[in-house]
Design brief:
Rossmann fold; globular; nine-stranded mixed β-sheet; two-stranded antiparallel sheet; alpha/beta; binds adenosine-5'-diphosphate
Amino acid sequence: MGEEREIIAVNVELGCDERCEDCERFFECESEKKWEIYHRRRMALARERLKNIRWKIAVASGKGGVGKSTVTANLAIGFALKGYKVGVLDHDFDGASIPTLLGTRGKRLTLGENGINPVKGLKDIAIVSTGLLPQGEEVLTWFHDMRRNATEEFLADVNWGKLDILLIDLPPGTSSDAVNLLQYIPDLDTVVVVTVPSELSQNVARKSILLARKAGAHVAGIVENMSGAICPHCKNVVDFLQKGGGEKIARELGVPLLERIPMEVEVSKASDEGIPVVFKYPESEAAKRYMDLVEKLEEILKKGAA
Ligand code: ADP
């Protein structure tokens, strides 16, 4: 019997089976064959749909619950307040919270002559989410191909119309849904990564940045959310989740720390009412930080991030 050794990565060890979309080395692979996935009918349709969108921004995080969707919703309103035409693709299939955050819970996507019509929310923001499907309140038990199909459908069959900005709320972590999206939109303009200051969150946020880089996407930087908590009574700041986590990872990976957003009761209150804090409580500290983030991203996009 020959010598045995540990398998490092299945596809790498066993050779290429030419199933590019499922390949763990898709982003590193230099084979021309991998580009064939973009020639499939649906991908061609997706390209056609997305060509009317000027900028595409993905919002990612390592862990769930760090405030990624809240950042997405506030960016959407923030850009809309500046006069941009905005769409939001809620790609967090299992944790779809954009409909709640943007006040469209209970509304439904419809099918028109020109494909799926997004639901219109506050400030005319076009929203597509699994939470706007009839089974939106149920637990989704989709697996591999169904999830990929859903991504393809949201990209190829949605009638987004002409948009200035499409914000994509990615699922937390580096799951296949996040990878699919990065594969299908090779021309993302930039990625924003949200973390909280704790070490645990930083370590997984790092993986999101590495995945975005591997996919060749531009990373605008890190948003440190829950960066200190503002006491609703005395307005003093308390560092419940330690300090400086976002800064540390930004330094380590050579990306900017874009913003520090405090934990503030107005943020969650406004979110639960379906009116993001930048609209509901523009004078709050968090709202000012979200708007500052909008300004910074606008500058990056205008300069041409990708
Ligand atoms: P994720 O998308 O990362 O899972 P969410 O955006 O859904 O996280 O936020 C999780 C919870 O934390 C929500 O209830 C939200 O209202 C609250 N939250 C997020 N950011 C803040 C903040 N800066 N201050 C107060 N509450 C926040």
